[in-house]
Predict the 3D structure of the following.
Amino acid sequence: MPVAQRRNRGTEPATGPRVVVVGGGFGGLSAVAALAHSGARVTLVDRNAYSTFQPLLYQVATAGLAPSDVAYPLRAVTRRDAARFRLGSLASIDLAARLVTLADGSSLDYDYLILATGVSAAFFGITGAAEHCFSLYTRRNAITLRNQLVAELERRSLPGQADGLAITIVGGGATGIELAGTLADLRNIALPAAFPDVSPDRVQIRLIEQAASLITPFRPALRDYAYQQLRARGVEVRLGTGIGAVSAQGVRLAGGADLPSDITVWAAGVSAPEPVTGLGLAQGHGGRVITDPDLRVRGHDRVFAVGDIALIDGQPLAQLAQPAIQQGRHAAAQIRRLMAAKGTVPFRYHDKGTMATIGRRSAVVQLPYHVRFRGTIAWLAWLGLHLVTLLGGRNRISAMINLSWRYLTWRRSGGVLAGEEPSETG
């Protein structure tokens, strides 16, 4: 490569339409990458200086990974993709003036806008849920949950402390079963080494799901396998059960029964974050932004929505990494077409399959063309894919070392990492 080209690589163009991408998750990052060398002036906005690898947050929450293992600096991404990074939280959008205003009062002009903010927990108006539940959508959420879990176990290690520890997870999707299964393995395998003064019999793990089965996007045989694996690990699974209220002491079921719960984790639904709900855009279930088939927000030709925040009219998709990645690329491709005075084309999702882990040596994998498998080979496939797709070589190596240490030695060492306090915003 000539010296002049090497010097220009990664340099933001001086002219061209201004594209603002709000959100540094899977959708936002794929859009930024797809706009590299397009001639557009791209600015990525996020409230954190790093991108979080959400699929492994439950490992951080159970002290198997360090928080830094799932975080990658966004400035490294924008430097690579010839974009700019702006640290800040979205406050408002002036659609007529094409102006994005951030929480600190600063503003950014745009010609095209991509909303990729992600979502937060949806508590469906259930009394006490927002106040007394932990969630698992951000790095800060994971650190806070981990600290609470360790603090509760430390308290029960004190001499004369006979209280048990009850943990309730609300929601039987992938996040719910992954957290429940890992907590069960932590109790069954690692607890004697990590907290020898706490008997595993004193730790109760409960999973509550309103639907009649777990992980409903999967085929029935894989759902049943997940259910049986959780039960075999000693998780109390309650299907077809709704939540009526949550308090600091426990959960009240929709039928009126009260269950004790020292730690309640909410993994039962998503909604748009507060800044998005007040933008005046067309919104559907959970406040998610309704888009036309080409991913442009309904009624706004220069605003796109991708990832979990987007609700495509007539094409509902699960809140997973692959839909977000493909949508980010598609939105970027449509901006390239508009820059070239071409019409947009509808988004079509290419299903590459989905997977979920239930615990050590147990996972389910569902691929196209009716390919299904489970057990150890599925777990190894899940582990390999997630390590490969982590951003950054350092993160991949560190996560591989930490997870190997956890799964190979936790009968002797406990497999519980110490970590930093939750000082960041997300």
